[in-house]
Design brief:
The chain is an alpha+beta fold and about 350 residues long. It has three domains: about 80 residues, Structural Genomics Hypothetical 15.5 Kd Protein In mrcA-pckA Intergenic Region, Chain A (Roll); about 70 residues, Pseudouridine synthase (2-Layer Sandwich), CATH 3.30.2350.10; about 160 residues, Pseudouridine synthase (2-Layer Sandwich), CATH 3.30.2350. The chain contains eight helices and 16 strands. The strands form three sheets. Strands 4, 5, 6, 7, 8, 9, 12, 13, 14, 15 and 16 form an eleven-stranded mixed sheet that branches. Strands 1-3-2 form a three-stranded antiparallel sheet, with no helix packed on it. The N and C termini lie far apart (about 60 Å).
Length: about 350
Amino acid sequence: MKHIIGGNPAPPLPQATTIRVDEDAAGQRLDNFLMRQLKGVPKTHVYRIIRSGEVRVNKGRASADARVAAGDAVRLPPLRISERVAEKAEVMAQGVVHGAPARDFPILFEDEQLLVIDKPAGVAVHGGSGVSFGVIEQLRMARPQAQFLELVHRLDRDTSGILLIAKKRSALTKLQAQFRERETGKTYLALVVGQWPANRKVLDKPLHKYLLPGKDGCADAGERRVKVVSRDDPNGMPSVTLVKVRASKATAFTLLEVTIKTGRTHQIRVHLASEGFPIAGDDKYGDFDLNKKLLRAGPGSALKRMFLHAWRLQFDHPASGERLELLAPLPFELEAFSAHAAPSSS
């Protein structure tokens, strides 16, 4: 059973709960393992019961960064619950979010290890930050028989294209290691405002995440943003983007193939905008006046979303080791606008 803190307290459960670690969970940090078991429990509470020794692994104390192994017995202390929160926790423990619609997405590849979909723009990859549910919750609802579905990586809500979902814990661990060690190849298609210089191929600029200060009543208060900082800035994270001109027109736009060597938040959007070439339709770092004009343009020339698409992904299969290359064609609306805006190959 899984019990969480929240709501109006009910009497404490009469005894502790013991969870057995299965093979799919083996190798996880203890804190991450507990957060997945106790979905909805505040992180601060999870860390408190670990530090206090209330959580035991094989009858002994363990630190938050200890790795659990298959067969380990993890003891949880009695926790106070409310019926409302317990019901929500049970739904989430089954891999779904109450009210999330079941939805399948275009499949680019699937086997017993992983699922690769073509994510549409406008859909978050997971719930949170004001979003009730995302791709992963909808997939879990559509596949109630699936014992394990977890995001390998993420895409911005307004970015379409290739998204990997692991179907086994072992696959998740191996694929995330590839992303972390930069052993994957990730290439996007982006349409920028202006004529990109063909000889500008490498953008090596540190990035820093920050929150907008905002004002009282401002909808953007506390919203996340990213900016380029100097190389000696202690908050700067190394960020490298490779750019290749794919197609251009004598006026207005350039279609680029953009490969990221690091996976920073908003990396492509900020790097391109910092060069004076914002992505068409970008509502955070773009040309806002132009975006409004593109939104109101007539049929065939309107752009109602950001023109950024995760087009190609290369990685090693987590079981066979075979190198895979997957492609997601441009969505119809971007293909149509691209043909109108940048039809000639470079």
